[in-house]
Amino acid sequence: MADRLFGFSANRRIVAGLLVNLLSSICIVFINKWIYVHYGFPNMTLTLVHFVVTWLGLYICHKMDVFSPKSLPVRRIVWLALSFCGFVAFTNLSLQNNSIGTYQLAKAMTTPVIILIQTTYYKKTFSTKIKLTLVPITLGVILNSYYDVRFNLLGTVFAALGVLVTSLYQVWVGAKQHELQVNSMQLLYYQAPLSSGFLLCIVPCFEPLTGDGGIFGPWSLPALMTVLFSGVVAFLVNLSIYWIIGNTSAVTYNMFGHFKFCITLIGGYLLFHDPLSLNQALGILCTLAGILSYTHFKLVEQEEGKSRLAQRP
């Protein structure tokens, strides 16, 4: 009975974490879109602001005794921080050098690459049913981006590097929490300032620092307030990402990412009257079918695992 109550409580926490991530992720997409369209704030600099605000948010939580930091050697998390910077840089370069359709198609490859990395290097096994759920999801992404897929050498290289580094980052977020025996807040408390420092070094290579469009440019008060609000929402996004991966897996988070993409498309259609073709509607249905199948098979496997443990003498 106690095990059932614990399991129910754990599932409720996971659902709550997914809900926070869903709402904050969708919210930040539309806030950032507003910032880019109306203020022209640079993309990578905005990510830097997000991580600085995330660290400040965690510092405030620490001072309010929400969590206790755990001393971590920098060398144990430096690759995690670097992989985050690589993920930001390469996904931006992929977006700059590819069409939106090609960019989205490349992002869909993150899930199978995560499964490959975890199978090869972490000896984690995935059932055939779980692997087959990737088929409708990939088909859905292809249907969504079919008319906008155009390949070129430089764009393909950046897209491939973006997928690889993003996959490593998501795998390491979960692996480091278990390896270092820390929770999401404790790990992010150290990774956020480290990643901010690395990002500060690479931002000048991609974006201006002063003048129009630079971080030290003449921004209006409404622009700065909106950017700050975006940073607060990003704090919730970053924290929930770490929490979800630490309590489920990188694959589950990635599946949830596909779901958020579908919701964002539907939200854009309903709120901003963005065009939604028949192909895109079919793609959304295929993707959602794959996600629902993954969720169903994952829950069945968890129940079977609990039953086997209960039957052991």
From TrEMBL:
Alphabetical UniProt keywords: Membrane, Transmembrane, Transmembrane helix
Membrane topology: Multi-pass membrane protein
Localization of this protein: Membrane
Secretion signal span: none
Positions of the Sugar phosphate transporter domain: 23-294
TM segment ranges: 14-35, 41-61, 77-95, 101-118, 153-175, 187-209, 221-245, 252-272, 278-297
Domain of life: Eukaryota
Predominant localisation class: membrane
Cellular component, GO annotation: membrane
Name of the protein described by the UniProt record: Solute carrier family 35 member E3
